[in-house]
Amino acid sequence: MTVIRLTRMGRNKKPFYRIVVTDSRKRRDSGWIESIGYYNPVAEPKVLKLDEERYNYWLSVGAKPSEKVKKLAEAK
């Protein structure tokens, strides 16, 4: 199953997340199919960039977003 979820980047105590499309059986930070955005919760104000066209495409072909990604996409 294909999922849209966050993968952690950055360093200790300075998280930075990429919003990626990946296979649900892979680990959180292992290889992914496509990166469709990023989220930086440390910056003031918090930064969210999401390619809505690609996000909607992946939803249309059956990808399931994680709870956090769904909440971030709705807030945008």
Topology:
Elements: E1 2-11, E2 14-23, E3 34-40, E4 47-50, H1 52-60, E5 64-65, H2 67-75
Parallel strand pairs: 1-5
Antiparallel strand pairs: 1-2, 2-3, 3-4
Major beta sheet, specifics? 5 strands, mixed
Helix content: 10-25%
Spans of at least 5 consecutive residues whose pLDDT stays below 50 are none
- Tell me how many strands there are: 5
Q: Quick check: average pLDDT?
A: 92
Q: Which fold name fills CATH's third level, the topology?
A: S16 Ribosomal Protein, Chain: A
Structural class: alpha+beta
Order of H and E elements: EEEEHEH
Provide the spatial order of strands within the biggest beta sheet.
Answer: 4-3-2-1-5
CATH class: Alpha Beta
Give the name of the CATH architecture: 2-Layer Sandwich
Radius of gyration: 12 Å
Q: Say which CATH homologous superfamily is assigned.
A: Ribosomal protein S16
Total count of helical runs of at least 4 residues: 2
Give the amount of beta strand, in percent. 35-45%
Describe the protein in words.
- The chain is an alpha+beta fold.
- It has one domain (1-63): 2-Layer Sandwich (S16 Ribosomal Protein, Chain: A).
- 24% of the residues lie in helices and 43% in strands.
- The protein has helices spanning 52-60, 67-75; strands at residues 2-11, 14-23, 34-40, 47-50, 64-65.
- A five-stranded mixed β-sheet has the order 4-3-2-1-5.
- The model has no long low-confidence stretch (mean pLDDT 92).
- One of its GO terms (molecular function) is structural constituent of ribosome.
- This is Small ribosomal subunit protein bS16.
